[in-house]
Amino acid sequence: MLPLPPLCIGLPVHNGGSYLGAALDSVLAQSYGDFQLIVSDNASTDATPDICLDFARRDRRVIYTRTPANIGAGPNFNRVFSFCRSPFFKWMAHDDQLAPEALERMMERLRAMPDAVLVHSRLTLIDDVGRPLAVNRDGRVMDHHGRPFHRLEPAHLAEGCRPSHRFGEALRRMNWCTAVFGIARTDALARTHMHGSYYEADRVLLAELALLGRFVQLDEPLMIKRCHAGVSVLKPFREQARMINPAVMPGPKGLRLRLGYLRSLAVGRIGLPERLACALVVLRVSLRNRISRKFLTRLHERSHETNRPLPPLSDGDPRPQRDGTR
């Protein structure tokens, strides 16, 4: 029996045949090759099984597993992590790619920084056929078909010393959440609540991980993000919810997300002042949902009628609203 490699890469996929081959090629061509690549096929009905079995036959580092029914993207992310027995773990998106030195650079940095729990990198953005994408002056990404995506998030988030600052930056400023595809310490990931069965659960997972240690972002664009018509940002809310977990009925928009915010406060061993600071972050973020804004708008309308001034609706945070639009 071969010894376990230091790194386990988990690739969850459902009907990803269009881009899966390119993703697997980019992983297997890495300059750092001491890893195990586990594919969790979520009952795909396209060419995904054939592609995976072909790669598994050609490279013994590839292990193919399959669910008998569609369990959803969230449970499939957690399922592929459950197979990890290595000290380091990385999720790999089936439609993304890696620069040839990505794993080597990230592993080198994570091993050199014992207080860091996650290392990721800046992005190279490509479209559905692999053409590079530009960023507008306002930071918004538009593909070659005119489809808009989120503005790029600021660099080097959640890298500070205070857990509450890292937690706040992860919850309030990580719009793309691509850091979830960095390399993490397995023991730290295991202390989180993992991926919830609601849209934007990856943001909550990153916030929980930030409570456990620092993030590190490499300035090299080693992670290659594909922006295409099938990404979740372009789907309506109910379709996003079914994609995450078809067994969970969509509830009021944003409700499960905010319950996830609350549950995240139990993660990590931090002092009471830091825990209270994190609770204030959760309160601030939770009050930014549409229901709260409608309520505040009505209050403002009433205040104009009675000539009683109220605080402004916005706290000035430039982060774009992301509820249901990712």
Write the topology of this structure.
Blueprint: E1 7-13, H1 17-28, E2 35-41, H2 48-58, E3 62-66, H3 73-82, E4 88-91, E5 97-98, H4 102-112, E6 116-126, E7 140-142, E8 148-151, H5 163-173, E9 183-185, H6 186-189, H7 201-212, E10 214-226, H8 237-244, H9 255-264, H10 272-286, H11 290-306
Parallel strand pairs: 1-2, 1-4, 2-3, 6-10
Antiparallel strand pairs: 4-9, 5-10, 6-9, 7-8
What's the CATH architecture name of the largest domain? Alpha-Beta Complex
Strand order of the largest sheet: 3-2-1-4-9-6-10-5
Q: Give the radius of gyration.
A: 20 Å
Query: Total number of helical segments?
Result: 11
Q: Please provide the ordered H/E string of secondary-structure elements.
A: EHEHEHEEHEEEHEHHEHHHH
Which percent band covers the strand fraction?
15-25%
Helix content: 25-40%
> How many independent structural domains?
2
> So, the CATH homologous superfamily of the largest domain?
Spore Coat Polysaccharide Biosynthesis Protein SpsA, Chain A
Task: Summarize the biggest pleated sheet.
Answer: 8 strands, mixed
Unreliable segments of 5+ consecutive residues: 310-326
* CATH T-level topology of the largest domain: Spore Coat Polysaccharide Biosynthesis Protein SpsA, Chain A
Shape estimate: globular
Rounded average pLDDT: 88
> What's the number of extended β-strand segments?
10
Oligomer: single chain
Secondary structure class reads alpha/beta
Straight-line distance between termini: 43 Å
CATH class of the largest domain: Alpha Beta
